[in-house]
Task: structure prediction
Amino acid sequence: MFRLCYAYFDKYEKIHDPTSKEISNLYLSELDFCFYGGKSTAFIEEQTTHVVVHSKFLQHLAEIQAINHQRPHKFHLVTDVWVEESVKTRTRQDERSLVVGLK
Result:
């Protein structure tokens, strides 16, 4: 389902710093994502296709969007709900239907 998807899970106090404190619980979403064929990355890299943020912890949203605007190949910005709904329906949901920050 998530084959060919590379996701950065925004779960740390500082972006790109896995040594910093965890501020959101995306652990189960990340496990589900990897179990269903996705690859998790510790950093937003060139091959990153998705950035997953917790639906209730959006404090890094502006910074993540700024990173995305600088990239030639954009990533999808989704919440943990996208992962949960995809697993629940056993079909990868349309990333655009669960876009973050455009409400």
Q: What stands out?
A: The CA atoms of residues 46 and 71 lie 8 Å apart.
